[in-house]
Fold each of these.
Amino acid sequence: MNRRDLFAGAAFGLALAATPALAQDESYTIGVAIPSATHGFMGGLNYHAQASIERLEATYPQLDFVLATAGDAGKMVNDIEDMVATRNIDALVVLPFESEPLTSPVQAVKEQGVWVTVVDRGLSVPGIEDLYVAGDNPGFGRVAGEYFAETLEEGDNIVVLRGIPTTLDNERVAAFEEAIEGSGINVLDMQHGNWNRDDAFNVMQDFLSKYDDIDAVWASDDDMAVGVLEAIDQAGRNEEMWVVGGAGMKEIIARIMEGDPMLPVNVTYPPAQIATAIELTALGLVSATPVSGRFIIGSQMITPENAEQFYFPDSPF
Amino acid sequence: MTDTTATEAQAKPRRRLSFHVIGPLLALVALIVLGASLNSNFLGYGNVTNVLARSAFIGIIAVGMTFVITAGGIDLSVGSMAAFVAGVMILAMNALIPSLGIGVPLVLAGMAVALVTGLLAGSLNGFLVAKVGIEPFIVTLGSMGIYRSLTTWLADGGTLSLDFAARTFYRPVYYDGLFGVAWPIIVFALVAILGEFAMRKAPFGRHCAALGANEQVARYSAVRVDRVRMTTYALLGALVGLATIMYVPRLGSASGSTGVLWELEAIAAVIIGGTVLKGGFGRVWGTVIGVLILSLIDNILNLASIVSPYLNGAIQGVIVIVAVVLQREGKSAD
């Protein structure tokens, strides 16, 4: 073996080492960490996350995705640590399971120079994320409240079913109350239905026993609306009142499309917001489009006229 | 001397029985009086039917739980199992519509699927506890997670819904009844009466109590320990199936959030009713009272809205503890 060959070999080795490095400059890995599909809304969120990942992988061959779903905050932290350690991610899209326990792990990821997109639930320290994408909780209550204020007359009676006692629920209810203030609508009662069909059914049965005159129900969630409608049906008081749910479950949207008089409208709180977050993050990586900042997805009113554009028959939610 | 001990011995059990019996009954009567004074609709036909019918699911399960606990076991998986059985039942009925059409055969097939699924699920718990010899707390904690996530998986994270036409046909099983008494209430009453009979008069009840009190003694007394233990779990599984048969027509759907915490409500009802958590003594009618106490608390809190709804859980907790304390005082008094 003479010297020239030795050099050639070294050059070949260098070239080998250089090629993947070059390729790595152009390809990116995006980690997506979301809660697992334990109920309808998260089911929809998982569906939209997977759908947008498939779409983006087809459009941008240089993008790689790591999707991890977690049943609790601890598992989510582990998932994120694994993504950084073993997949060397360039960007992280995370829907924090809980704000507090996820804050410092996500901060650590950020400090390693990874782009961070936070979805729906904020972290407890501001300024960690590059991009924040969320639904509009006060808007969710306000849009519903405005519909009640416009449609009902002074002295009409309503009952309200609330979700699981959380900040999110408080924001929605406060905005709803603000929107109906001064309209003369009586809120007879508010109880927690915990975003659960069975609980909402029981609470509504009791409301119906307690009050002889109810003109409308703000069920504030479509799962609760299903239970409420069944209780009203059982009492045979269908003619008397209408129900507004929320979040846009496909079965409810279908009934709005058919013009069901008991379900006049719905308010969106789209599980597809995860798709917005993933798409924007990808766009920021593959192009020079600026995507940092806050992106609040407005809560829209779904009416029989526009219901079709909110109907996703393939989504589980 | 002999005379005095004899009379004392006679007096003791009588007094204990009366205190023991009065505890949960007293709490129930107090709740009914409270409810009636707070709202005039409380004792109305509609409200009484609502409360009894919604008690039926937990009630039917709690009767089975009474036997499991009396025999010294515990089952944490019943809530998840109910969700799983409901999911399987809905999928089976939807799949059978093309071949059976919508009618009585479809509903009967659905009921059979629910009972068999429940029985198999319960038997599996029983097998692992009785034959493999694993702690029941661990076995059922494991199966609790398994059934819950199987349901979520079957539903693809969403909700499993029964075909609309099939549901309309099946609906009367929850909402209609005989002579104005809803079906779930009738079924609950039958299960409770049969359970009370089995606990008091049948050998099975005595075997459960013997097994729960002292396994070695039961074994030497020719009780087939493994078989009795396995039967309690299988029976509970079948009763979960029966409860599901009543549950599915109510909302026609099942999801990962169906039956959450039912296991704890059922266990609480059993203990409120006077059954001993560590086994050896069980009282089925006490369980029925325990179930009624739990659902009346919810009902009264909704009807009265006297306190912040944030405190509902705290009030429930206080009443549950008080109901049990009443019994304890009765016991220590003798």
Amino acid sequence: MLVRANVNGEWRTADVWAGASLLHMLREHLGLPGSKNACEQGECGSCSIWLDGELVCACLVLAGQAHEREVRTVEALSARETLHPVQEAFLEVGAVQCGFCTPGLIVAVADLLMLDPSPDEPAVREALSGNLCRCTGYQKILDAVRLAAERMRAR
Amino acid sequence: MSVRILPGTRGGVGESVRRVDGVPKVKGAFQFASDLWAEGMLWGYTLRSPHPHARIRAVEISAALTDPGVHAVLLAADVPGKKTYGLEFSDQPVLAWDRVRYAGEPVAVLAAADLETARRATERIRVDYDVLPAVTDMGEALRPDAPRVHDFGNVLRHIRIEHGDPGAPADVWVEGYYETGMQDQASLGPEAGLAIPADDGGVDLYVATQWLHVDRMQIAPCLNLPEEKVRLYLAGVGGAFGAREDVSMQVHACLLALRTRRPVKMVYSREESFYGHVHRHPSRIWMRHGARRDGTLVNVYARILMDGGAYASSSAAVIGNASTFATGPYEVPNALIEGTCVYTNNPPCGAMRGFGAVQVCFAYEAQMDKLARALGMDPVEIRLKNALGTGSVLPTGQVITGSAPVREVIRRCAAIPLPEEPAASRGGDPCSYPGGAGNVSRGEGLRRGMGFAIGFKNIAYSEGFDDSAEVRVKLFAGPAGPVAEVHSAAAEVGQGIHTVLTQIVRTGLGVEHVLLHPPDTQVGSAGSTSASRQTMMSGGAAQLACAVVREELCARVRRRAEAEGRALRGEITLEGGAVLAGNAPVGRVEEFLEMPIECVRTYHHRRTQPLDARGQGDVHVALAFAAQRAVVEVDEELGLVRVVQVATAQDVGRAINPQNVAGQIEGGTAQGLGLALMEEIQLQDGQIRNASFTDYLIPTILDMPPVISVLVEEPEPGVPFGAKGVGEPSTVVSTAAIVAALRDATGRELNRVPVRPDDLIGLSPPVASPGPPPSPDVPGPEPIPKRAGLAAGQADLMRGD
């Protein structure tokens, strides 16, 4: 089936199998592998993206459901040279190790700080409880959220 | 080796510099193995056995081949070379031919135009199995009438370590039985790679692995190709933790690529990943500790049984570690340690972070707490009293010559402030209770507990293995100053070795601009990214190579000064891209680089020895120690747990990148917490029941407490910068510390991990054992016949018994 969606500001069309997920369409048809596939069950958050501004796991959305809708992925967050404050904070505090969960986490944190610029720690933990990370033990991710929130508020 | 740190160069050793691969990783632009793509590429898929033990009568592939999208279906008969592989013993079939020995074993591989076509076509392959009785219990595997997993028997390795007088009397004895479950590494990046057939008849393989060269050593004979025609390149690795030590899809993808003459990509799904890599060995451990009334350890008996699953993988080394570390980081004058790893028809077990040291730490630390209680001593005090130090003798007779700040890590850990006491009246937010939103109480049943544990882990490979590392360093003049290029095959799996290498080269050459050549097999082996060894081994090789490059540069500086009739005063040093003689500047580094300077060096660690028949030998290169204190809250009515705080002190030798060291400690602690509280591959008659992230739980951000870490820096002599590996000790101790805290909170025995809610509220009794099984009657420490050794040819393997 043909799916037409606005992906990162550009209207794109893909010819996908009716059972394909949005994640599959992004990764295998549109050349956007930034969203990762680690569980394909919506458990790990590695494929977090925005669908019409709503944070979703792209593996749980059928490609067809994105038809005529707006999709934003991690690739949209930083222009060629500049980094989003959340990306900058992740690097600065050492919240990246293997990096496989990182794109999903960056999207989830950017989403959280858009909705709540000053989340307290329990709120951050609750918001990120759907993003699994196997490397960091999450401590430096919490540090990164604090730092990014501070800087984004100061802007 | 003299170590000279040049202070003037930014981003060198000792600084928390940013990751070299950080920017692409946060942008989603870093190419992981599962992101690889090539023009005209096919997708590979694996058909796996549904039975833990069966004879293969026939395989029918014609139905699968009818789909026009299918390009090849391969069976064992299509493997052109050696039909088996393995890290230590070549006992694992590339594709099963006469027998399958575990549920999930590959039987056929298929290449198709896309993944969905490949999946569906694989379902049309018909395999006629004759199901055989399976042995899926490690204790049963030792019975003489048990089904044999391999023709030569079920004993994979048996070790007996006798130290002092194992009959020595003691004033107080404590006994215990302990079990640990099968843990999964659960790296988020799945097994993946892309094989591209080459014009010379060889193959180029881009793959996520921990050791490129040992993969090639196993792949090339199976393809019947010389090693130089099998070229490996490291693709982005989404975590490893031991699971990528073994070959998974490597040979399969190469076979399909060579057959179809098309690039072939293979990526495991999460479910397949649970079947497609080895796991942490489940264990059963019996221990008896004897001490004098003052708390001094006198005698330890330990019997360890581990389930190696269907194939050897690195099981021989894992049981070696478990056995040699069985008495913990304590002085024990008399001991008898017996360790056995058996084959079963369960999925194979092998390397996972902590590598045999985790299971025994859970047991010996529970024993130390029992002993403290029996003697009325403080748990910290009894550990301080018996702690190892430099000069101590291990049960293997090995004398510790390196740094061993065990008392220091205990004291520094114990001194970290405790978390605040819970408010007398809870009220408030139920999300702060154990179980978070899942807690339905008003906090009535909450009990707080504290536990303390110490442990240790070897750095680098043991028992006589020379796991050397090669690095090439090239210094040349770039358009904006001197540039150093580092070429190493060391696998960056997230731990940060690439950043560490650039730091070491900056310090070694006084040059800030350091480039990394992509890791591949065009340079010599770096050894495995395992055993907390790369900082010492590849870091050591980089340091050696830099020293030679620096000497050549200094020689050029002297030659030019002589030619110009100038005298240079003082030592020549390199700093921030400048050459200094004494304190006087001589020129810029690039002025002396009309010709680049290039050097390849190999670092070898000090020689170790194999264990002898009595389990004696200088087996380990170096040891790293850690202490952890855990504070937990248990809801005694609901069986829910919240870990409130983990405090830890770790012996790191020297922190090359302190921020990364802390990151390793925090991440390692999370995996230990997982084993303590939730992580277990549930097996029923050899079948994995929970092969998904919905059913196999790993810690989330809601499960992890703050981890407060203190780095104890006492440099290891004879090692580059004195730096010890840092990846594993936290995983070794945290399971033991957290369960000790649960025991303190509940008063229950809790002798099996992961601890379940049922265990915490007394619905299920502690696991019991009739006693240790008799030692197997095997001919010495190597029951597997030599013909199955890694170097054995296929003819030897096929000969049979």
